[in-house]
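dumping this here so i dont lose it
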């Protein structure tokens, strides 16, 4: 499989591969740092069984971020494709990373706040994409509460019912409860978000710039992004401070943070099951 990938890359980059090494740290795909005889080097992710457009959607997301997150480091997309036999790949500019600097989270907070100034008329996006390996629907909606229910919570709950983690009856009562969620959300405009912002998708480059990768972009309430960052213990306090200096939070975020987190928790239910099912139930009970 690797041979076919290497041949394809040599053809596309018109260079001979001199050496390569595996890169760990991803949770879905395999990754390599490849060096060519001509001394250029690239980062390549590949997967033999991923949805055919997974990397295309990631490439679109990276390009959108590159256009709008001007003070964050985002890898350049070099190429992507699907080879005969189904192996898909994404080739990116290789970024030399370094340990997180002291002010990493401050820079990240400023960069994300600037990204969140990218306004749009609707919640959603002009393309569907993926969150991990799960499809993420992004059809436009004009209110966040419609978008949150129809494009985020309902599809994941339907999948969770199919996966036998929830019953249809439960889905019905959650839908009933969701009618009251509308009043909880602030009136804020849709802004571009990374969509999967957690510790595994941030880095510092060798010049000390904060960077983000592996996006699942769409136009959303920015609070969705901030709630996401809090899911696994949260970022350093300097991130939230730097963010709020540029974009103060709307009152009441702490009260609704857990509701936003229902989405990534349901994604985890459908990817991993186990304890996430109870975590999702706890949130649902809090907002029923
Ligand atoms: P996955 O899609 O499997 O989650 P990631 O995008 O998280 O994979 O990447 C896997 C690893 O490769 C991570 O440790 C990440 O820091 C590193 N990485 C991702 N993109 C680049 C890049 N352009 N240059 C160098 N390293 C990268």
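and the seq i came up w/
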């Amino acid at each position: 499989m690797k041979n076919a990938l290497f041949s394809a890359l040599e053809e596309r980059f018109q260079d001979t591969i001199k050496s390569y090494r595996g890169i760990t740290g991803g949770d879905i795909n395999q990754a390599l740092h490849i060096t060519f005889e001509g001394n250029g080097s690239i980062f390549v992710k590949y997967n033999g069984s991923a949805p055919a457009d997974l990397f295309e959607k990631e490439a679109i997301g990276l390009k959108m971020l590159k256009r709008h997150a001007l003070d964050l480091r985002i890898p350049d997309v070099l190429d992507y494709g699907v080879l005969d036999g189904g192996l898909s790949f994404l080739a990116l500019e290789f970024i030399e990373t370094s340990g997180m600097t002291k002010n990493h989270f401050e820079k990240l907070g400023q960069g994300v706040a600037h990204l969140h100034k990218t306004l749009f008329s609707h919640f959603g996006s002009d393309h569907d994409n993926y969150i991990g390996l799960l499809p993420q629907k992004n059809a436009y909606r004009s209110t966040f509460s419609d978008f949150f229910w129809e494009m985020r919570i309902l599809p994941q709950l339907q999948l969770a019912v199919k996966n036998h983690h929830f019953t249809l009856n439960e889905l019905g009562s959650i839908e009933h409860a969701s009618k009251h969620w509308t009043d909880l959300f602030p009136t804020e405009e849709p802004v571009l978000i990374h969509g999967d912002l957690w510790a595994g998708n941030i880095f510092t480059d060798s010049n000390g710039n904060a960077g983000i990768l592996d996006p699942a972009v769409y136009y959303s309430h920015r609070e969705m992004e901030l709630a996401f960052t809090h899911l696994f213990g949260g970022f350093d306090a300097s991130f939230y401070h730097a963010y709020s200096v540029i974009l103060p939070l709307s009152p009441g975020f702490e009260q609704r943070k857990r509701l936003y987190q229902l989405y990534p928790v349901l994604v985890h239910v459908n990817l991993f099951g186990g304890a996430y099912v109870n975590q999702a139930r706890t949130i649902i009970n809090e907002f029923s």
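Residues 23, 25-29, 31, 43, 45, 75, 92-95, 200, 203, 213-214 surround adenosine-5'-diphosphate (CB under 6 Å).
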